[in-house]
Amino acid sequence: MQILTPQVFWAQRHGEIFLRVELSDASDVDISLQGHNTLQFRAQGHGAKGDNQYEFSLEFLEPVKSEIHQKSTQRQVDIKIRKRDERWWERLTLREKKPLFLAPDFDRWLDESDAEMELKAKEEKINKISVESRVRKDPYIGLKKGYLFMYNLVQFLGFSWIFVNMTVRLFILGQDSFYDTFHTTADMMYFCQMMAVLEVVNPLLGLVKTGFFPAMIQVAGRNVILFVIFGCLDEMQNKAVVFFVFYLWSSIEIFRYPFYMLACIGTDWKLLTWLRYSLWIPLYPLGVVAEAVAVIQSLPIFDETRLFSVPLPSALGHSLSFSYTLQLYLVLMFLGLFINFRHLYKQRQRRYRSRKRKVH
Ligand SMILES: CCCCCCCCCCCCC[C@@H](O)CC(=O)SCCNC(=O)CCNC(=O)[C@H](O)C(C)(C)COP(=O)(O)OP(=O)(O)OC[C@H]1O[C@@H](n2cnc3c(N)ncnc32)[C@H](O)[C@@H]1OP(=O)(O)O
């Protein structure tokens, strides 16, 4: 019987070689590896020269792994071989001159960059599945999401009430509304800012990805202004600065909390996301300036009332006014502004960089 060579088509990926042997109804298929890189193929089948014994040998460019996957169908024999080192080969065979029976398999053919993209897509899919399965493993995920959703909803309603109340009063009373902001909205602001302490607790419990430090600066900074400067000094409560501080705080929160609520249910509204990650740019410095004005206005009042002053030994004078602590706090405020401004800038970059990557 005449021994012939079948037509063989090939393609590669970074880790594998695919061979397609054009032999129908193949039987007695014998595929073996000699050394680390020479494949021997022998089979009985129907090829270009009819029913015959067909065989070929291929000496690969680089070593391959010993296990060979083979599948014979009515039309062809498919062979998959793993490369020993996962890298792109510039050709299939050690000899530069390609054997006549060998041709590219255009059904499977990819050039190096396309194969890399395919590899990356596969890796991303595997990562996504492993992240999803990790997430699915958390039995309390529903409870955590439910708690966060409710927390954000309550804060959203609280700050919306303050914002709407102040806006309506501004339209009706004009500038006069500045002076009784505290008396009309303080109870709700106390409630919202006390609840906001949870924003420091949540990252500690691993419920949100927020940094603990930025959240602490934010909550502690506002609560000093609300509970110490406005809350403890009656003289501060009817000043116009209360209006500006409360208005600036609530202007961001009526967008930030609904943004978080949507995040809890896996939804994202482009405009809301943009507002959450952009409004702080003018509002944050304005807020810090308004808070600084409130602190400066309170200094003479603390000096006069001696509230929170620290008694000193008589040799050093009467007592140390709390206004000195507040002067130090003023410096800390601008340091806090810098830290949180940088944090928010990074969050914005991260959000828009990762979104751009998802689009392409
Ligand atoms: C006595 C000691 C005193 C020490 C302090 C001294 C310094 C004081 C200086 C204080 C200056 C304060 C000035 C300030 O009060 C002025 C104003 O506020 S003016 C108004 C403008 N303000 C703002 O715009 C700031 C608003 N606040 C914030 O943005 C946050 O509080 C802040 C911590 C600053 C940043 O937020 P965060 O880090 O959380 O960023 P993200 O929104 O991107 O969230 C990160 C990821 O976590 C998820 N997340 C966060 N929280 C929740 C939640 N409640 N529910 C659900 N999910 C949440 C969020 O979705 C993000 O997830 P992902 O990355 O998957 O998108």
Automatic annotation (TrEMBL):
For whether the record's keyword set contains Lyase, the answer is yes
Signal sequence residues: none
Stored InterPro entries? CS_dom, HSP20-like_chaperone, Tyr_Pase-like_PTPLA
Primary location group:
endoplasmic reticulum
Task: Write out the GO biological process terms.
Answer: fatty acid elongation; sphingolipid biosynthetic process; very long-chain fatty acid biosynthetic process
The CS domain is annotated at: 3-93
Q: Annotated pathway, please?
A: Lipid metabolism; fatty acid biosynthesis
Q: How does it sit in the membrane?
A: Multi-pass membrane protein
Instruction: Please give the catalytic activity noted in the UniProt record.
Output: a very-long-chain (3R)-3-hydroxyacyl-CoA = a very-long-chain (2E)-enoyl-CoA + H2O; (3R)-hydroxyhexadecanoyl-CoA = (2E)-hexadecenoyl-CoA + H2O
In the record, what terms sit under GO molecular function?
very-long-chain (3R)-3-hydroxyacyl-CoA dehydratase activity
The protein's enzyme class: lyase
Recite the UniProt keywords alphabetically.
Coiled coil, Endoplasmic reticulum, Fatty acid biosynthesis, Fatty acid metabolism, Lipid biosynthesis, Lipid metabolism, Lyase, Membrane, Transmembrane, Transmembrane helix
Its annotated compartments are: Endoplasmic reticulum membrane
Q: Which CDD domains does the entry mention?
A: p23_hB-ind1_like
Under Enzyme Commission nomenclature, its number is 4.2.1.134
One Pfam family hit: PTPLA
**What exactly does this protein do?**
Catalyzes the third of the four reactions of the long-chain fatty acids elongation cycle. This endoplasmic reticulum-bound enzymatic process, allows the addition of two carbons to the chain of long- and very long-chain fatty acids/VLCFAs per cycle. This enzyme catalyzes the dehydration of the 3-hydroxyacyl-CoA intermediate into trans-2,3-enoyl-CoA, within each cycle of fatty acid elongation. Thereby, it participates to the production of VLCFAs of different chain lengths that are involved in multiple biological processes as precursors of membrane lipids and lipid mediators.
So what family is this one in? Belongs to the very long-chain fatty acids dehydratase HACD family.
Annotated protein name in UniProt: Very-long-chain (3R)-3-hydroxyacyl-CoA dehydratase
The organism encoding this protein is Poecilia reticulata
